[in-house]
Amino acid sequence: MKTLYQQLGVTPLATRIAIQQSYFRLAKKFVSSNPLEREHAFNDAEYLALKEAYRTLSDSQLRADYDRSLQIGAGKASLRADGLK
């Protein structure tokens, strides 16, 4: 499963501006009226996921909450891996 950062094609260190630029570049591929600029057939699920990633990562509080959830998830995965040894 892709992280929100991966969906937008940025790293967790990306600035708000970099996140915005990436979102607009990717969104253009879904909604452009020019068929030469459109890489994908319009897919509501992909576009909504892209919008949600942007909404979360462009809001400082939502982004901090999301980053904490990633750290918690990584910790749980590490515990599961250690338990398998």
Produce the secondary structure layout:
Elements: H1 4-8, H2 16-31, H3 44-58, H4 60-84
Helix pairs in contact: 2-3, 3-4
Number of strands: 0
- Beta-strand percentage range: under 5%
Could you give the distance between the termini?
24 Å
Helix content range: over 70%
Q: What structural class do you assign from the helix and strand content?
A: mainly alpha
Rg of Cα set: 16 Å
Overall pLDDT metric:
83
Largest sheet properties:
none
SSE string, helix = H, strand = E? HHHH
Query: How would you describe the shape?
Result: elongated
Low-confidence stretches: none
Quaternary form: single chain
Individual helix count: 4
Written account of the structure:
The chain is an all-alpha fold. The chain is built from 4 helices and no strands. The chain has helices spanning 4-8, 16-31, 44-58, 60-84. Helix 2 runs antiparallel to helix 3 (44-58) and helix 3 (44-58) packs across helix 4 (60-84). It is elongated and about 45 Å long. It starts with a helix and ends with a helix.
